[in-house]
Amino acid sequence: MTPATLAPQRIVCLTEEATEWLYLLGQEQRIVGISGYTVRPRRAREEKPKVSAFLSAKIDKILALRPDCVFGFSDLQADIAALLIKAGVQVTLFNQRSVDEIFSMLYQVAAMVGQAEQGLQRLAAMRAELDAIAHKAGSFKRRPKVFFEEWDEPHISGIRWVSELMGIAGGDDVFPELAVQAMGKDRIIADPQTIIERAPDIIIGSWCGKKFRPEKVAARAGWQDVPAVRNGQLFEIKSADILQPGPAALTDGVAQLHRIMSQWEAQHA
Hints:
This protein is α/β, with parallel strands linked by helices. It contains 14 helices and 11 strands. The protein has helices spanning about 5, 15-25, 40-45, 60-65, 80-85, 100-110, 115-135, 160-170, 175-180, 190-200, 215-220, 225-230, 240, 245-269; strands at about 10-15, 30-35, 50, 70-75, 90-95, 145-150, 155, 170-175, 190, 200-205, 235. The strands form 2 sheets. Strands 6, 7, 8, 9, 10 and 11 form a 6-stranded mixed β-sheet that branches. The chain starts with a helix and ends with a helix.
């Protein structure tokens, strides 16, 4: 017996981050089904059956794949998990919301597929890159105030790992008190005037798969004097790169954040 043979052999991933991580670990042969929202890695869409959205899943199709393990994310998938568990399927539902929790989730998945050592090496490299970015940001003479908009109607501010990554990248979240709220409904900003009053220097949009429209943001009533709008500091980061609580956010997502912050700081130092 080896860790690899004792590990699950037929895995369904209900969200993208587990899929991307298993591919990075070279364990994609274990995956038998993925989320329809998966775009990382792109070849997964061509190679694996799509069996779920985020809040719904094709239970019969999943059961037909005979999985010995299903990976999911968040309490929002609890109903899917319950149906699969009642059908006798092992389900591991992660609920990571912070950077540290993402690292923990990734380690657990690596260990579950017999790749704990490789997982630790890859995670150490990711952590070292985050430390390097934080070190560079530590030299900023000015840190921009940043509004991260996860949805536009209603306005929803960024989740905790996004807020933490903005801090690492060199910016300060203008809604840190909302970032700690796990559910999007608890991060709704009912009065847009609140955003105006916090005067963000940068606005970053990632509208959960919908294209960010900077011209719509700039045209909002009363927003013309918001520093980010006045100075044209409106940017998009694709949701697959930053709102996936897995490898993407810890690599490409934070790198894009740091690039935006660095450009602003160079102009305003």
